[in-house]
Amino acid sequence: xxxxxxxxxxxxxxxxxxxxxxxxxxxxxxxxxxxxxxxxxxxxxxxxxxxxxxxxxxxxxxxxxxxxxxxxxxxxxxxxxxxxxxxxxxxxxxxxxxxxxxxxxxxxxxxxxxxxxxxxxxxxxxxxxxxxxxxxxxxxxxxxxxxxxxxxxxxxxxxxxxxxxxxxxxxxxxxxxxxxxxxxxxxxxxxxxxxxxxxxxxxxxxxxxxxxxxxxxxxxxxxxxxxxxxxxxxxxxxxxxxxxxxxxxxxxxxxxxxxxxx
Length: 262
Prior knowledge:
This protein is an alpha/beta fold. 37% of the residues lie in helices and 23% in strands. A 6-stranded mixed β-sheet has the order 6-7-8-3-9-10, with helices on both faces.
C-alpha cells in the first residue's frame, strides 16, 4: 500500500462539541470533518475561542464529541489514548526533576522498560540539542529549552501521532523561530503525524503540509489549504518564496473575513 493509499491516521467525521452548565450552553465546534494522512503535518489556525484546542482534545480522547465520530489509527476514539504525544503551550515540567528525569516521567507513567527508555531519552536529547543540560533543573533552563524537554517527553514512547497546542506561543520571536526550525527537522527525521494548533500564520505555513482555517465559534472549517512548498524547508529561503507569501496572504484574508462576520 502506498502512502497515498494508506488509511488516514486521524479521521474527524461531522464532529460537534457542546459544553453545558447551569449558566451557559456553548457550541464550540459544529460539523467539523477532516482527515490527516500518516506522516502528514497539519496546522490549524483560527480566531480565539473557535475550538482549536477542543479539536485536539477530541482526537486524544480527553473529550468526547457531542455528535459525530473521531477515529485514530483506524479505530474509534472512545477515551484517553496512549498512542499519542501531547505538547502544551507551557512545558509543565516538575521543578524538582532534572531535564532527563522530566523526560523519563513519560516512561514511568507508561511502565516502559528502563533500559529502553534511557536509550530513547538519550537519543532525543541529542536530537533536540539538549546535550550538557540533561541534569539541569527547569529554572536553570530557558523557555525554549524547557519546551525542548517537553517535546522530548512527548516523543519518548514513539507516538505515531503528535498533538501540539500552541507550544511556542509564550516564547520570544527569535526562540520561536529556532523552535520552528527544530520541530521541522525532527518531524522530517521521524515522519510522525503532527497536528499543530497555532495563532501564527507564518508558523502554520512554514511547518504544515496543509493548513486548516477555522471560523469563529461555533468552529467549522472555512478552508483547507495545501501548502505548495518542498517537504524539506530552509527557514529563510521559505519565507522569501512566492508560494509562502500567497498562502499566508490567503489565510489572512480568510481570518479577516471571519472576524468581520463575527
